[in-house]
UniProtKB/TrEMBL annotation:
Protein's UniProt name: DUF481 domain-containing protein
Keywords for the protein's UniProt record, in alphabetical order: Membrane, Transmembrane, Transmembrane helix
Membrane spanning stretches: 28-50
Matches recorded under Pfam families: DUF481
Length: 272
């Protein structure tokens, strides 16, 4: 396809790392299946955005960089896939993200997350209920396995075509297996409060600034919290193609680990 031939990428990244990776076979399966789904959906010809008869959206971002000097080399790849279905009373979202990087043959990132969430719209204006299941494994954050699941409510403070501001709060059950040190594992479970700030600003259908910020505190331990922050700035090149700059920050305070990524690349999206 013509759009596939046009896909080029560039990335500038800053990253603070930890440990842990997925088996190669699982990584290939995780990346291959969403890619097949994405290519299949992009074969559809309808280009309309969400309306009475169009309820699907797919988004794929692939970025990467290689930095080579006389002292060594490094590279980092970042792949993200999203598929959404929206109806009048419910919306479903399926998200996958994989970050992989090396510096001088040392692993710096092998971070994967997948989530499935729903929004349930009832009679209260601007308010909806949400539910979420999320799986995370992260080398840089020292997470071997982590499962999060829960429910809550959200309210749109501003809900216009070009401006959206949303607050959300709920309760999550968190069960995880962490690396505290090379020979020390932390198997735990806890309930967390999950607070989120979500926003989007669109300028003349060309420039989009959007982001999400999460703070997830444990009810049982004050110093056990998770912070996740993502800010994206996109400039539309074609109806289906945008140049995107993303700043991501993640902290897992239980392992005293964090990472920061500044990415530049291309985003392909499709409404149908």
């Amino acid at each position: 396809m013509l759009w596939l031939k046009s896909l080029a990428y560039a990335i500038v990244s800053v990253n603070i790392s930890g440990r842990r990776l997925l088996p190669v076979s699982m990584r290939l399966l995780i990346i291959t299946v969403p890619t097949i789904v994405f290519l299949w959906t992009c074969a559809l010809t309808c280009l309309a955005q969400f309306n009475d008869t169009t309820h699907y959206y797919t988004n794929f971002t692939s970025t990467g960089a290689i930095n080579r000097t006389q002292d060594g080399s490094s590279y980092l790849l970042n792949n993200a896939f999203r598929f959404s279905e929206k109806k009048k009373s419910i919306a479903l979202n399926f998200n996958n993200n994989w970050v992989y990087g090396r510096s001088n043959d040392d692993l710096t990132n092998n971070d994967f997350s997948t989530s499935l969430d729903f929004n349930l719209y009832k009679s209260i204006p601007h308010f909806y209920y949400w539910g979420l299941v999320n799986y995370v494994t992260s080398y840089s954050l020292k997470i071997n396995n982590q499962f999060l699941g829960g429910v809550g409510g959200a309210y749109n403070l501003i809900d216009k075509k070009n401006i959206m501001l949303n607050l959300s709060d709920g309760v999550l059950y968190d069960r995880g297996d962490l690396f505290i040190a090379d020979d020390i594992r932390d198997n735990y479970h806890t309930f967390r409060n999950s607070f989120r700030l979500l926003y989007r600003f669109v300028i003349k259908d060309i420039v989009t600034l959007d982001g999400s910020n999460f703070v997830q505190n444990s009810f049982s331990r004050r110093n056990d919290y998770i912070i996740r922050s993502t800010t994206n700035l996109s400039v539309r090149i074609r109806k289906w193609l945008s140049f995107t700059t993303s700043l991501n920050y993640n902290r897992m305070n239980r392992t005293h680990s964090e990472n920061t990524l500044l990415n530049y690349g291309l985003t392909i999206e499709k409404y149908f």
